[in-house]
């Protein structure tokens, strides 16, 4: 049995971080307080988790949720592990 991948890694030492607490700002945005598991580092930081796109539509959609559908290129990047690498800045939409 494999362990799940870390939600986030410490930006300083690249060790897995654990979520200590979080607050829901909206249905699409959560802010979490994380702590690095490396005792020699001890970095504590906050991060936002934002739902930004739909990959596969919901079978029971909510009328107050409006998300763009991911493009084939975005789906390909996620399925090949491209999300583990830093992504270039998003292009501005007009
Ligand atoms: Zn660390």
3D architecture notes:
The chain is mainly beta and 94 residues long. The chain is 9% helix and 30% strand. The protein is built from one helix and four strands. A hairpin with a 7-residue loop joins strand 3 (29-36) and strand 4 (44-50). Bound molecules: zinc ion (ZN). Zinc ion binds next to loops.
Total strands: the figure is 4
Low-confidence stretches: none
Number of discrete domains = 1
- Counting DSSP H or I runs of 4 or more residues, the number of helices is 1
Major sheet size, sense and barrel closure: 4 strands, antiparallel
**What ligands does this structure carry?**
zinc ion
Short description:
With 94 residues, the protein is mainly beta. 9% of the residues lie in helices and 30% in strands. It has one domain (8-81).
Keywords:
single chain, 94 residues, mainly beta, 4-stranded antiparallel beta sheet, 30% strand, flat, binds zinc ion
Present the secondary structure layout.
Elements: E1 8-9, E2 16-26, E3 29-36, E4 44-50, H1 72-79
Antiparallel strand pairs: 1-2, 2-3, 3-4
Bound molecules: zinc ion.
Zinc ion binds at residues 10, 12-13, 15, 36, 38, 41, 43.
């Amino acid at each position: 049995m494999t362990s799940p991948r870390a939600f986030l890694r410490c930006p300083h030492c690249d060790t897995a971080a654990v979520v200590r607490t979080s607050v829901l700002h909206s249905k699409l945005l959560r802010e979490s307080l994380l702590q690095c598991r490396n005792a020699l580092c001890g970095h504590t930081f906050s991060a936002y988790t934002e739902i930004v796109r739909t990959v596969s539509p919901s079978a029971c959609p909510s009328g107050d949720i409006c998300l763009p559908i991911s493009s084939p290129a975005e789906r390909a990047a996620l399925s090949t592990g491209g999300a583990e690498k830093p992504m270039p800045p998003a292009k501005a939409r007009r």
